[in-house]
């Protein structure tokens, strides 16, 4: 039952942190006025997608924490969370599309590195990051397209 002891902390940190950052940096008039590519999803897609991803990120983090707090996978987990939480303020609050693209590309690289590093520590955690990697790569393409169109 050790997972049940640490999981609430990870859920509060990741889901709670994501909700707070999402609320504080909610897209507004600036974002609505940007030119967006045809493949830009409707706004309502983002909240449920990130909610599911944040739960997966939290569970994976808790599992890797229990298997090796000092493992490279855990350090990568913390780095991806920092980069994840940095992107929205840079993009939505500071309106810095280029630097946000750099952050999301670093995030994608870190997520992929986590998948590789966690594979030997906890394969289920690595697998839980696959949808996250796909979404971040898509978001990176979207961020890059928005940069080019604006």
List the helices and strands and how they pair.
Blueprint: H1 2-24, H2 29-32, H3 46-67, H4 72-93, H5 97-119, H6 123-128, H7 130-149
Helix pairs in contact: 1-3, 1-4, 3-4, 4-5, 5-7
InterPro entries: TspO/MBR-related_sf (IPR038330), TspO_MBR (IPR004307)
Keywords: Membrane, Transmembrane, Transmembrane helix
Transmembrane segments: 7-32, 44-64, 76-94, 100-117, 129-149
Structural class: mainly alpha
What is the strand tally?
A: 0
Shape type = elongated
Low-confidence stretches: none
Distance between the termini: 51 Å
The gyration radius over C-alpha positions equals 16 Å
Largest sheet: none
Mean pLDDT: 96
Which percent range describes the beta-strand content?
under 5%
Number of helices: 7
Helical residue percent band: over 70%
Order of helices and strands: HHHHHHH
Write down the domain tally.
Answer: 1
Keywords: Membrane, Transmembrane, Transmembrane helix
Subcellular location: Membrane
Transmembrane segments: 7-32, 44-64, 76-94, 100-117, 129-149
Pfam families: TspO_MBR
Task: Give a quick set of tags describing it.
150 residues, mainly alpha, TspO_MBR, transmembrane helix, transmembrane, membrane
Verbal overview:
This protein is an all-alpha fold and 150 residues long. It is elongated, with a radius of gyration of 16 Å. The longest helix has 23 residues, at 2-24. Helix 1 runs antiparallel to helix 3, helix 3 runs antiparallel to helix 4 and helix 4 (72-93) packs antiparallel against helix 5. The protein contains seven helices and no strands. The chain has one domain (2-33, 44-149).
């Amino acid at each position: 039952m050790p997972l049940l002891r640490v999981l609430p902390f990870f859920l509060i940190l990741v889901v709670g942190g994501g909700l707070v950052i999402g609320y504080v940096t909610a897209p507004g008039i600036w974002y609505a006025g940007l030119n967006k590519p045809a493949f830009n999803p409707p706004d309502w897609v983002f909240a449920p997608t990130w909610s599911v991803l944040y739960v997966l990120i939290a569970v994976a983090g808790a599992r890797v924490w229990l298997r090796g707090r000092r493992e490279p996978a855990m350090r990568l987990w913390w780095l991806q969370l920092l980069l994840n939480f940095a992107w929205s303020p840079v993009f939505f609050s500071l309106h810095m599309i280029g630097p946000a693209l750099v952050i999301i590309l670093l995030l994608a690289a870190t997520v992929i590195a986590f998948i590789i590093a966690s594979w030997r520590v906890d394969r289920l955690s690595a697998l839980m990051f696959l949808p996250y990697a796909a979404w971040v790569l898509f978001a990176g393409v979207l961020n890059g397209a928005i940069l080019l169109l604006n």
